[in-house]
Prior knowledge:
Layout: H1 3-23, E1 34-35, E2 48-50, E3 55-60, H2 63-68, E4 77-79, E5 82-90, E6 94-104, E7 109-113, E8 125-126, E9 139-149, H3 161-177, E10 187-190, H4 195-203, E11 211-213, E12 219-228, H5 241-250, H6 252-258, E13 263-267, E14 276-277, H7 280-289, E15 293-295, H8 302-311, E16 312-318, E17 334-340, H9 347-355, E18 358-364, H10 369-373, E19 379-380, H11 384-393
Parallel strand pairs: 1-9, 9-10, 9-12, 10-11, 13-15, 13-16, 14-19, 16-17, 17-18
Antiparallel strand pairs: 2-6, 3-5, 4-5, 6-7, 6-12, 7-8
Amino acid sequence: MSLSHAKSILVYIGKLVKVIAARLPGFHPRSCPVENAAAQGDNREPDIEIPIEGCDVEIQVDPLVLENRFAVMPADTPKDGDSATLQSRFEYNAKILNGARVFSDSVTHISVYDRDNVIREELSAHHRIPPPRILKKRCSTVYTGTTLHLAAEITTLNGNLFHWLLDAMGRMLMLEERMGQKLEIDRYLIPPKIASYRECMIAMGISEEKIIELPLGECVEFEKLIWIANPCGYSSHIVPEWLIQSYRRKFSKIVSKGQTKSTRLYISRQDASARKFSNEDALATALEARGYQIVRLSEYGLAEKVRLFAEATEVIGMSGAGMVCLMFCRPGTQVIEMYPSTFVNYNIASISYQLGHDHIPYIFPSNSFVSKLNSFSGKFEMDVEKFLEFYDSIEPKVQPSIRCSA
């Protein structure tokens, strides 16, 4: 057994121990610590439904991407008579819950329970192992006022920028832009121990004292909890245009200023936990010789990421979380998205198609055994010469306008 395999097994055992420990009944005091003020009695008010406008989406997709995609999403259907056009309908809903409780073991689920500790399955998310239907933990803290639940997705627990911007913070933008009334939010509940999430919230204009982190393995109660549906849905790979434009408006000053410049970016995944190149140094060296700036996005805050992509006229990168920042590029930007053959999807491409980028897919053979077992993972060896031949074969194009609207 190799050292890496032994480490993987130890990590798995550690997670399993956390899951078991988190599900044991808690021994917290009967009187829970209360933030700001005491909760007002036993609040049995019914949920309040919040009307939020849905939307229809239609995008053009390169046939090469559709032919090789690893998953077919049921909500994305071909348009009649046009197999290269996908259309989808997003229905949204939101609720204000009274006395709701949130509990997560950090591995298998993030769940919402009512005051009687019965799970609200339609408001909860789990992976493989279902959460407890009846919560036996005592609550550790009660938060008064109104809290927006931005820690509702398991996919946000590992620090993934794509899911954080679109599935989590996107809910905040949905409240701001797609409902007919303004709600006063006292605090925002986010996943724990991920500094980049807190930095993103501050960059979005949320004061730090309003941000609270979900304690893992503990039950937390809220006087009023706002739960919102996922802006991108669960059965679509399309990023809706309203969400893209909402982010562009949020950072309009940076976007407009950046679009007076012209740079080339290669988005490195060298520091990513999955899907990266074993020989990326060779690829990076070749692209640097062609005038590309090599960027590791983990080294930048959100506002700096916006600036980098707003200034770019050409972007190359493997399909992954960092490429979500293409939503800050100007129309006409040339994008080469590299896909291992085991992981072809149109998440990122849907952003480019709606912003009018010159999106060019490059699908390379997956030579990673791990990727064949798990399409989201793998360490690949890029045939650099073959990629450069492909790159050099792309016909020169008219550069995008140096200034355009945000």
